[in-house]
Amino acid sequence: IRIARCFEATRQRCCRLEQDGRRAREQLARVEAERAALEVKLKHARNQVEVEMKKRHRAEAELEKQERKLQLVLELLMREPWGNEALSGEQCSVLSALAGRRLGAALVSVRRSSAVDESCQSLLSHSDISYDRTEDDVVRS
Fold first, then answer.
1. Rounded-to-5 percentages of helix, strand, coil across the chain
2. What distance in Å separates the CA atoms of residue 81 and residue 87, rounded to the nearest whole number?
3. Which pLDDT band holds residue 110 (cuts at 50, 70, 90)?
4. What is the pLDDT of residue 123?
5. Model confidence over 17-46: pLDDT tens digits?
6. What is the DSSP letter of 80?
7. Exposure pattern of 74-110 as b/e (b: 16+ CB <10 Å)?
8. Distance, CA of 59 to CA of 61 (rounded, Å)
9. Mean pLDDT in residue range 116-133
10. φ and ψ at 32, to 5 degrees?
11. Residue 95, C-beta contacts closer than 8 angstroms, at least 6 positions apart
12. Between vectors from CA 76 to CA 75 and to CA 82, what angle results, nearest 5°?
């Protein structure tokens, strides 16, 4: 009877361990599926950040290009004799004020964007976004 009880206790323990193992495998499968979904989201987020950074750099380059063109036009208007004759004194002062304000606004916007870059450097830097798969290899081993 003692041997039968021991066998029954062992059988019940084996059943519990099988159920625990089954639950653990199911949980592992759920967690792996969630991890895979999060990896996909991370990949999309990285791609979106990269696209937005490229758009921003293109827009900033275009802004600088347009500012240079405007500055050259204003300088040309201010320096050319026909420009001074064609423009009244008031128009010249407005143009020079506009040139000063444009340059000042450009400097302020550059300072503002660099302040954002500095404060968000760790969030937006491509080097910080990179994902090292060697850690996965170590964890899965």
1. 90, 0, 10
2. 10
3. very low
4. 46
5. 999 999 999 999 999 999 999 999 999 999
6. S
7. beebeeeeebeeebeeeeeeebeeebeeeeeebeeee
8. 5
9. 46
10. -65, -40
11. 74, 77, 78, 87
12. 130
Closest among 109, 125, 118 to 46, alpha carbons compared: 125
The string of DSSP letters for 34-47 reads HHHHHHHHHHHHHH
Mean pLDDT of 109-134: 46
Structure tokens at 71: 């500055």
CA atoms within 13 Å, Cβ hemisphere of 26? 6
Q: What pTM was computed for the model?
A: 0.49
Distance CA 76, CA 83 (A): 8
Q: How far apart are CA 141 and CA 79, in angstroms?
A: 73
